[in-house]
Amino acid sequence: MLEVKNLNVSYGDVQVLWDVNFSVAEGEFVVLVGANGAGKSTMMKAVSSLVSPMSGEISFNGRRIDTLPAHSIIGLGLAHVPEGRQLFPEMTVKENLEMGALSPAAKLTRKETYQKALSLFPRLRERERQMAGTLSGGEQQMCAIARGLMARPKMMLFDEPSLGLSPVLTQEVFRLVQKIHEEGMTILMVEQNVKQTLGICDRAYVLENGRILMQGKGKDLLEDQKVKEAFLGI
Amino acid sequence: MDVFLQTLVSGVLIGGIYALIGIGMTLIMGVMHIINLAHGQLMMVAMYITFVLYQYLGLDPYVSLFIAMPALFLLGAVIQKLFLNPLLKVDSILPENQVLMTVGIGMVLTEIVRIIFGSDYKSVTTSYSGSVMYLGDIAFNTPMVVAFGIALALTAGLFYFLLRTDLGKSVRATAQNKEAARLMGVNAERITVLTFGIGAGLVAAAGTLLLPIFYLFPDIGGHFTLKAFVITILGGLGSTVGAIFGGVVLGIAESFGATYLSMDLKDVVGMVIFLLVLIFLPGGLKRLTKI
Ligand SMILES: Nc1ncnc2c1ncn2[C@@H]1O[C@H](COP(=O)(O)OP(=O)(O)OP(=O)(O)O)[C@@H](O)[C@H]1O
Ligand SMILES: [Mg+2]
């Protein structure tokens, strides 16, 4: 469904991604792990066209998307839940969610999708009219995920959804992501909670200093000596 | 007491129109994060358009609103698209340099108008220019009351747009988090063009409404850019609700200055309040909501 080929990305003179190749098949749950500064968010931003690659190719459902402007990506069915939530702080929860459903297709079913999203996140229902900027960290993450769902995407990108959350809330967020996946969503998630995410995903890639170091089934990587040393401290 | 009330009333009436000027500048600041130092010059252009329509076609200034506003909307949109947005694409040009660009645009507009119309004072005197309504002992200058009503309606319309329509919400979203807005499918560049257009259209309305009570000359633009700046700072940068407060406060301050000090000092009063706010209330008068 998503295919990234020989991708090189740089910010000015500094190259951040080196010849990255990976793919996500329809219905898969793929995780991208890596240390701080490895280039995970840059990878996600490249997929969403927020940064444009120096070279390489990104395609979604067989269609090349790296040459498209950022605002046309979501309409293709690819929603990005960015690192650090990136909500609209002075808009209500409801308005934030509405912003997720701007494409003509998503707009048609906006009311139903909205109710569906709220049933997945009951806490948001109580806070519909609250400014997103005043939500707690956990609620903000729920709001960001719900906003992504509002687009009725075929595939979702999650960039560190557990960032800044307590262990309990992290569990909760992972459970929700799994639930969304079980309902048929294709998922690419960036995480630093390596142990937990490798346990729930289908496949994973390890990114180190902008290069794909290894890939494999989540469970296999968990057993890998290098992964253990680098991420699990064993 | 009557003098006091009278002064207050004139201040509020003019303040409502000042608010239109300030809201336009504030919108532009909120979305593009720049101070548009051509704001008053855009207003001046709108005033000349209205003047020409009156002088040569005999068109009533209120009717000219329907021409001056769209014309300035277009001019503003073109400025954003052709002169400001290209600056953002060159990494070596700092975003702040957009502000310098607006200064240049303001100068060019002023000089073009000076070439066409010369520097002398023009004015529009309609049949109702001097007409007055009374409520008890308080006199209401009719054109000012109408202007105030129109300003109010335009402001309400703008708020409806920003709060209730998808496009208006996209404008607010872009102001609050541009990158996230783009992820949601908002064409941020188009939003900047639209926003500059709306800002210019609003200040065009203000200019047209003020024309019957002000003398018109090319340099009036700079004068009103300063006023717009004061209003925007008074209102707490980037808040449209604040800009309304800022406009009304400036209107009232000038009105009291003119009545109780002297006509010549009315602008000084505005500047003094401006400085006091900067020193003691750097956040501006009000920051109710950032819309
Ligand atoms: N806008 C930018 N301009 C310049 N350099 C950047 C920019 N964004 C990221 N970088 C640099 O690119 C590298 C990769 O950053 P990126 O945000 O992709 O890392 P990450 O893997 O997501 O890290 P984290 O886990 O901390 O979120 C870092 O060295 C970072 O400093
Ligand atoms: Mg990151």
Polypeptide structure, described:
- Chain A is built from 10 helices and 10 strands.
- In chain A, α2 packs parallel to α6.
- Chain A is 37% helix and 27% strand.
- The mean pLDDT of chain A is 92.
- Chain B is an all-alpha fold and 291 residues long.
- Chain B has one domain (2-289): ABC transporter involved in vitamin B12 uptake, BtuC, CATH 1.10.3470.
- A two-stranded antiparallel sheet of chain B has the order 1-2.
- The radius of gyration of chain B is 19 Å and the shape is globular.
- The two termini of chain B are 37 Å apart.
- Classes of the chains: A alpha/beta (234), B mainly alpha (291).
- Chains A and B meet through α2 of A and α6 and α7 of B.
- The complex binds adenosine-5'-triphosphate (ATP) and magnesium ion.
- The site of adenosine-5'-triphosphate has 12 residues of chain A, from α1.
- Residues 40-41, 83, 159-160 of chain A line the site of magnesium ion (MG).
SSE order and pairing:
The complex is a heterodimer of chains A (234) and B (291).
Chain A: E1 2-11, E2 14-24, E3 29-34, H1 40-47, E4 55-60, E5 63-64, E6 78-81, H2 93-100, H3 104-108, H4 110-120, H5 122-126, H6 137-149, E7 155-159, H7 167-182, E8 186-191, H8 194-200, E9 203-208, E10 211-217, H9 218-223, H10 225-232
Parallel strand pairs in A: 3-8, 3-9, 6-7, 7-8
Antiparallel strand pairs in A: 1-2, 1-4, 4-5, 9-10
Helix pairs in contact in A: 2-6
Chain B: H1 2-32, H2 39-57, H3 61-89, H4 97-117, E1 132-135, E2 138-141, H5 142-164, H6 166-176, H7 178-183, H8 188-210, H9 220-234, H10 240-261, H11 266-280
Antiparallel strand pairs in B: 1-2
Helix pairs in contact in B: 1-5, 1-8, 1-9, 1-10, 2-3, 2-4, 2-8, 2-9, 3-4, 3-8, 5-6, 5-8, 9-10, 9-11, 10-11
